[in-house]
């Protein structure tokens, strides 16, 4: 294919030689090589088409022509740093401000969600003059040293928990300490934060921030119970701390009904700091911190400049503006609401056919499917989840997640659910293959999308056990992309 | 002008309202609004042309058409993350490897020099299993929390020095503890690092890394004395640490004779980790860490994935490749050598006419001009440097720096030097204006470039004292851009 410059084996050999192996490939045994994309579809070097169920970064669709046009036009005109006065940065900040509660009206532009969270931590500590941070269990807030410290998902595998970091229970009403049957799980989980604050105070320490994703993603596509954030914010502020909403994965309309996932907690709730990233530039490195006049003022008061070489440059802001335009013009929030509801509905129906589906949850195009081997015990079906090679997350890696480009269609949702149905049917049916064999076949070729989806779609639902090849195809659904 | 969307006053008002004030504007009293650029020239909203003497980020020239074309073509084709196999990342790593010593052959792509330095710190600590870091006095390595800790330029104004950070003297042979008259300043300064290591060991602590810019920039455009890095590397490695060369400001041929500034220390010297950033994507957020197989291996061995959402994506790598192509095709290293030598020569001649010029130093298009009110005492002429509104750096903010786009021409160098001549002449001549007045007039309008340079260039050299307006024009030369 014209767009391929190296043979796949050569690319792979060079990758292994030249790129740090900590940077993992999807399906490293037999990685997929994608060379072009459009909308929700990816194409490999043989022009095979894949349906993308997880690229939340490519929010308005891969290679959207409006974004490319905006980028190219501004690149041709000017791309200085934000120490120069420029229209794009202020127009973009103004547009973002319009999506947020009034008090979140000061912006800092950076290059990644990690840079945004690092700055949020600095802002919180500078404003409160306190050090300690409360985070949710299993949280991930970024790859920088400061963020590994506040990410249980990472620090448990690395340097361990610092004395200034405190871990609150994940407010998971499916398998957490308070569940659906609790009369007020929002209050109950918020009280665990209150207890933690008291414990911190007993140690003579002080809280600078409560830091949480508005919908914990690596934690397992968790929907926070109603009332939780408002109560937590009240407790944290009483302790002199601030509430940081990490919207890096969840912002920009993914939840459909609202522009920001924290808004699901009601109009009465407003964080003190909001961080944003991934979908913001549709793949271009662009991220941001929004905060209040008071917090920004305290940061300015230290008298030290904050300079981010690329942050808020005219090209990044032109791209950011174009993304906002497309979200509006193509009614992608409306689409997320409609398609997300349809997807959840189909998955809920599927739950009646497959005992292994313990829970279906989500909002808009942020959906999780939790697999369990026993519905009463809620035993995580980690092995099955692993065998079917879909995107897994959560403490037991048994939550299949959907967070596709926002142009995902009704038909795409139907196709994805049909494929999951077939995979689960095949995996729970007596087979001539050992699970180990299935695992090997799947994990060696699967990718975050549906391979040859046209063929899969026409595959008769009630036919005999899937052939190796077809089973492989059907299992190519989603992969982890945190 | 067609490209201006808001009136300047409106842009300024919105900027003050919406963007954190810690993000400073150049000449905040009366900031310049730049709306287009090409090569080494910037244009404001009234189509006034400015010569850019300091934008090292826009390395191959502002808005280079080859870079825009490469970006737009790849944006239209594909922009996934680096978990997918792709040709661009491996081809780019291969091209970078060809510029480096053989042992620096493993790459990690990130979005900013700060992200690169943060990762370098992690790599060093993981590999050595030691914590402590030695840095040079006045150094700046980035805006992230981990980097403020290792940047004396920042931590002295903020949280202070951590117990694991140790500051070595800046090897400045103009005003440091060992000067030009020392028989072997390289060895003498390296020995200060050796002493520091011994002091660290006496405290029962262990060195993970010596971290330094290959040409300390914020430190005052310092050229490290010969032999320094080789000796320091020897001492640091003996202590079980690694040598990190921060090439974020200095790499990609700026020094002309070599692709990397660390190579000025001779063929025998090779760092263990090299970080790169600013010029790498000509304004696009792109940065990188290069290291050895051994260090990368130790990082992989911790078993934890390193995932950077945007790092190494096909668009960033396409841009990086295009930048390398332009550097080669337009012989920008040759240009940096020739124009840099001419600029240094002209400034050295100027030194014979202006007592205030204490030192002229530099290599390629990385040049510093140090102003002193007394040549023997080397008293920093901070106020004069401030009054003439040029880019200042160094501990006393009295070093005027040049680090222009690499397409800077002989004529540009001549013009810049003529203007400095006029500014210094005017400032040291009896005037009817108070210095305070001059300062106000200058700092309120100056910018990192020459305003209306065509007019300035034709301004007769021997005429009467400059009018306010003309003095303003002539003083528009450079500003700080770290």
TrEMBL record, chains A, B:
Listed InterPro entries: Aminotrans_3, Aminotrans_3_PPA_site, PyrdxlP-dep_Trfase, PyrdxlP-dep_Trfase_major, PyrdxlP-dep_Trfase_small
Assigned keywords, A-Z: Lyase, Pyridoxal phosphate
Cofactor or coenzyme needed: pyridoxal 5'-phosphate
Protein name: 5-phosphohydroxy-L-lysine phospho-lyase
GO cellular component terms, A-Z: mitochondrion
Pfam families reported for this sequence: Aminotran_3
Family listed: Belongs to the class-III pyridoxal-phosphate-dependent aminotransferase family.
One of the record's GO molecular function terms: pyridoxal phosphate binding
SUPFAM superfamilies: PLP-dependent transferases
Signal sequence bounds: none
Residue numbers spanned by region Disordered: 462-482
């Amino acid at each position: 294919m014209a767009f391929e410059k190296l043979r796949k084996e050569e690319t792979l050999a060079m990758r292994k030689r030249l790129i740090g192996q900590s940077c993992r490939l999807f399906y490293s045994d037999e990685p997929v090589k994608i060379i072009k994309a459009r909308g929700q579809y990816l194409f490999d070097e043989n022009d095979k088409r894949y349906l993308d169920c997880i690229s939340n970064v490519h929010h308005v669709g891969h290679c959207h022509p409006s974004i490319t046009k905006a980028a190219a036009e501004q690149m041709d005109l000017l791309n200085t740093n934000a120490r120069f006065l420029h229209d794009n940065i202020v127009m973009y900040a103004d547009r973002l401000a319009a999506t947020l509660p009034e008090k979140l009206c000061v912006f800092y532009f950076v290059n990644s969600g990690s840079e945004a969270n690092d700055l949020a931590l600095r802002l919180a500590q500078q404003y409160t003059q306190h050090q300690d941070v409360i985070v949710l269990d299993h949280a991930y807030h970024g790859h920088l040293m400061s963020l590994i410290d506040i990410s249980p998902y990472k620090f448990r595998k690395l340097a361990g928990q610092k004395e200034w970091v405190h871990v609150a229970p994940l407010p998971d009403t499916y398998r957490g300490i308070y569940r659906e049957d609790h009369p007020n799980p929002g209050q109950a989980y918020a009280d665990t934060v209150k207890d933690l604050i008291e414990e911190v105070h007993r140690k003579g320490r002080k809280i600078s921030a409560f830091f949480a994703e508005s919908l914990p993603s690596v934690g397992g596509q968790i929907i926070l119970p109603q009332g939780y954030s408002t109560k937590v914010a009240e407790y944290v502020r009483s302790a002199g701390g601030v509430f940081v909403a990490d919207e890096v994965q969840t912002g920009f309309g993914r939840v459909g009904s609202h522009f920001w996932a924290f808004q699901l907690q009601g109009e009465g709730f407003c964080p003190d700091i909001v961080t944003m990233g991934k979908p913001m530039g549709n793949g271009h490195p662009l991220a941001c911190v929004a905060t209040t006049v008071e917090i920004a003022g305290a940061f300015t008061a230290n008298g030290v400049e904050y300079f981010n070489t690329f942050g808020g440059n005219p090209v990044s802001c032109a791209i950011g503006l174009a993304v906002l335009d497309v979200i509006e013009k193509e009614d992608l929030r409306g689409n997320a609401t409609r398609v997300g509801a349809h997807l959840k509905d189909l998955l809920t129906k599927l739950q009646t056919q497959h005992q292994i589906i313990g829970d279906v949850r989500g909002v808009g195009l942020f959906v999780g499917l939790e697999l369990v081997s026993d519905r009463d015990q809620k035993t995580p079906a980690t092995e099955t989840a692993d065998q079917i090679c879909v995107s897994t997350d959560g403490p037991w890696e048994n939550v299949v997640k959907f967070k596709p480009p926002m142009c995902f269609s009704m038909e795409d949702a139907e196709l994805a659910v049909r494929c999951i149905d077939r995979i689960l049917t095949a995996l729970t049916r007596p087979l001539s293959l050992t699970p180990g064999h299935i695992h090997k076949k799947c994990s060696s070729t699967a990718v975050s999308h549906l391979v040859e989806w046209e063929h899969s779609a026409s595959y008769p639902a009630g036919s005999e056990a899937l052939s190796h090849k077809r089973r492989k195809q059907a299992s190519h659904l989603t992969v982890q992309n945190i």
